[in-house]
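#struct-pred
JK: can someone run the complex with pyridoxal-5'-phosphate? inputs below
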Amino acid sequence: MSDWERWLTDEAVRRDAAGLTRRLRPRGPDDDVIDLAGNDYLGLSRDPLVVAAAAEAARIWGAGAGASRLVTGTLSLHETLEQELAAFLGQPAALAMSTGYHANLAAVTALADRDTLIVSDAHIHASLIDAARLSRAEIAVTPHGDVDAVSAALASAGGRRAIVLAESIYSVLGDAAPLTSLADVCASYGALLIVDEAHGLGVAGAIGEGLVRDLGLASAPHVIVTATLSKSLGAQGGAVLGSPALIHHLVNRARPFIFDTALNPAATGGALAALRVLRSRPELPSVIRSRVSSLAAQLGVDAPAGAVLSVPMASPQIAIAAQAECLEHGVRVGCFRPPSVPDGISRLRITTNAGVPADAWARATDVLSKVVEAHR
Ligand SMILES: Cc1ncc(COP(=O)(O)O)c(C=O)c1O
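RT: done, structure tokens with the ligand placed:
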């Protein structure tokens, strides 16, 4: 065995002993399990209009964009998606990327460098954490949702450019960031606020326009938005949204955008169709809201701001057993355990899905109530 093979084996043994081994579990196309673990909050990934648009885009443009955006990869379809996405989120302009992960990497690394202070909420997504590290900026992590701590960190910037990172709706606990206060604090220190709307787009706001626009912050020049096309829009990809000057800067400086093949045509066409379905069915986000609040009441937890319901479990083992029992009864839910949770508490992560038919939703909530009750 080579040194490298021995190292891989040792790492695997260590992970197993700590109960941290992750495994891929391929699913078939029709496993008739009700999926309340994924992030397809509006059920649009299987919407016939969305699927047809994705297929049509592949037929017209090909299976891949063929090159990066600055070479020959920019399609008129990208431009249409960017214009309609920006309009929906109330932003002047948008730039589409291959993933939401890329969008966060692009925004942060193009705006921050060694002379920047990044102030990062303790619960932000791994993509923003990685982006901050890649930027080489100094990073100050503040307690979750603590605006005073953000203010204190900004006060210590000492004249450097500063950027605050937050999610509009946090992905694990489903709670909302205090965006209005954060935007005020950032304005008073001349800092930028980057808000990841991955779990806000399609969910937050009266028509799913996201929390930034809902709170009237979309026109604030110091607030920048990132989004993913892979959750509520049911496709794949991401975007950074803000002023034309910001987009111009990203096109010229954001390495995760410049050195990456353009967003593929099927994902672009699918996301665009999903956005149009969302615009034509403005009631969809309210289905999420009513489902999530009644399920929260049934499970005895607080209703979240977004579609994610986080149900604390007494131990990692109990959380795993409850998840397995849900699956035995035909309902797939997520299970987050340390170290993948921001606060050390094991939990079931249940995503509300407006696309699940009413009878299946009733069956699923019945299973969830019984399983959670049995494991309390
Ligand atoms: C908050 C947040 N930001 C960004 C991403 C990355 O998005 P994508 O899956 O499109 O790369 C995710 C995905 O899980 C997320 O939850």
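RT: quick notes.
DSSP finds 15 helices and eleven strands in the chain.
Residues 99-101, 104, 125, 127, 167, 171, 196, 198-199, 228, 230, 238 surround pyridoxal-5'-phosphate (CB under 6 Å).
JK: thanks, will look after standup
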